[in-house]
User: Fold this.
Amino acid sequence: MCGIVGYVGKEKALPRILSGLKFLEYRGYDSAGVAYILNEKVNITKRVGRIKELESSVDYNLDTYIGIGHTRWATHGVPSEINSHPHQVGKFTVVHNGIIENYLEIKEKLIKEGVNFISETDTEVIPALLDYNYKKEKDILKTIKKTLSSLEGSYALGIICSDDLDNIYAARCGSPLIIAKEDNGNFIASDVPAILSYTNKYILLEEGEIAKISKDNISVYDNELNKIIPKENIFEGTEDAAMLNGYEHYMLKEIHEEEKVYLDTLNYYVENNKFKNTMLEFKDYKHIHIVACGSAYYVGNIGKSLIEEYANIPVDVEVASEYRYKKNFYDKDTLVIIISQSGETADSLAALRKAKEDGIDTLAIVNVFGSSIAREALYTLYVKAGPEIAVATTKAFLAQTTLLTLLAVRLSKKEELLKEFVGLEKSINELLNKDYLEYAKYIYKHNDTFFIGRLVDYALCLEGSLKLKETSYINSVAFQAGELKHGTISLITDGTPVISICTDDLVRSKTISNIKEVKARNAYVIFITNEFIESDFYDKIIVIPKVSKLVSPIISVIPLQLISYEVAKLRGCDIDKPRNLAKSVTVE
Ligand code: AGP
Assistant:
């Protein structure tokens, strides 16, 4: 996912822009660039690779007070300087986050009009169309309005026009963009962490809105150029939310915030074992669809187990990228729940919009305040995980699992179950303070790992497997424990690492039987369970606290997260920014 930072003010622009881009590195990128105004000219510097490449090519102390910067996660066109942003055509220079779906059609039309293109990107059509329209419109805001009406797809834009060297222009549709106010100037940025070092006051640009930002004024317009008074927000977190705070990696820092995140999320909805009015009332839905991507989808699988078990409502869990295209069976008695940490995942947003178009009730379970999914769903319940910087989600996963568990209790109408949450933070703390290095020392030397479990433990296996894959690049698969013998067990050889999760008494003996099947093939078994058992069917055992079945999934994920972290560290991986990955996938 690309990152945008712009600044216009009384302070030098480049230090602010480049430091802001660094706080957006977690979004994933492969090149970076900046445009700034100096000697009445728009200057552009772009580099492939990390921001430090760009930093070494730009003189921080230049007397420039307005600029726009960008980190690019390549979608159309390989990572190269030419394809990097900012893109400039004629009088217009642009940085963009999103995808212009109809760029080829626009490009062909403009080429016929004599416009030259130098990059392979979809983005370049934006400054080209702006410059083309400006020749007729002569007014920058009208030009922007006319240009945006021709674009299909998603965009967050930072725009500079060489006829107006005092203002940055901005617009958004489908990709987030904030405008932040500092004492001596104003920012545009893709996300709050980019500006937290300077201010916590920000405006969330709404869908279709256009902004004109000078060093001491912010004007926001709707898509008909009617001026509007935007809502001002104060970011609740503190600067340390975007800082490492002494940890080596954001992933480790965020895992160690899980005790606080659990309590913040629980206490936002529950007081004295009773729901507060922050927890929604729901009608008697007959069916629930949970729709999400990646780890959020695995939270959905945990939610399915709990809602079916405690609220006795059938639940289908679907991957958003499938759900948005397939035939779905729902009606007025169905609730569609979209789970998303970022609230900007394109497939999840599209699935939400499809359910809404079909008149179905929708509930968003989101971490990022004011995100697209949060604002477009009929109902929204926020988790209280705070900004999650590491690409691999951890604390948000635990917070989402906590909230889905609360939702299962809400839908069950058995409020007395809330007492089972009391004191769980002690178990979280216990698991956070265990040492998982010995397990990681075995796993990191292998390129294949298996996770096996049954029922809700299988959902945790799915998440554990993804954590290991995305942070340590080890090929890993999760299987229902009973399924392994139907083919995949052929892959088990001497020493193959198999991590088994077994917390559910109902299937404990069956899972142990399955573990014995792989042990008989000389697998190396790490057994994660909540009841110690002396036996030779495992090589290592990790005993987690035995808590109620309802809240057990909340704590079971912690060993999996920390094992993955230790393995990735031993393998020297880029833990917070794994290759090829972005924090939020805002493109299809
Ligand atoms: C999780 O570690 C991954 N980074 C990824 O699977 C993520 O969960 C998925 O892209 C969904 O993101 P969202 O929760 O922001 O929608």
Q: What stands out?
A: The chain has a mean pLDDT of 94.
